[in-house]
Amino acid sequence: MELPTRRTTTRLGRALSGLARPGDLLLLEGDLGAGKTFLARAICRGLGVPHDVPITSPTFTLVHEHAGRFPICHADLYRLREPGELRDLGLRERRGEGALVVIEWGGPHLDALGGDGLIVRLAQRPGEPRRAEISATGPRSRRLLGDLHREIGQSGPAC
User: Fold this and answer.
1) Torsion over CA of 130, 59, 25 and 137, rounded to 10 degrees?
2) The domain that contains 24 carries what CATH number?
3) What pTM was estimated for this model as a whole?
4) Who is most buried in 63, 64, 101, 137, counting CB within 10 A?
5) Backbone phi, then psi, for 69, in 5-degree steps?
6) Range of the domain at 23
């Protein structure tokens, strides 16, 4: 799916927020500056996190929790070095408690996070618009991806 503007990225985030359910896992992948935090912000806003609440990259704090229609854990796992560090963050448990878990740089940790996640890979080649490649890793995320295709197909470019 092409994301040539911030507005199209925001629309993707809003579509995801409308379809995500408590306990879902969204993994945001891409190079530095690809738009992962911007997309996470759009998801959080779509879930009702007020505009006066800053939604920034949790690069140094590792996890930010936000209150929306249901709890949201926004994490950045770029700096993790050992498996025990992930366990100590309690993200898998938060999923089980009904939080939406949105993770930047989380792909290598999919299994430790409970699996079945929707992966959004953001990339931009020189001279081309930003793109999102979206894939599913289990039954729930496949349903979410199918719903997203139907949603985006009705209001914008297909994935």
Assistant:
1) 60
2) 3.40.50.300
3) 0.92
4) 101
5) -60, -30
6) 2-155
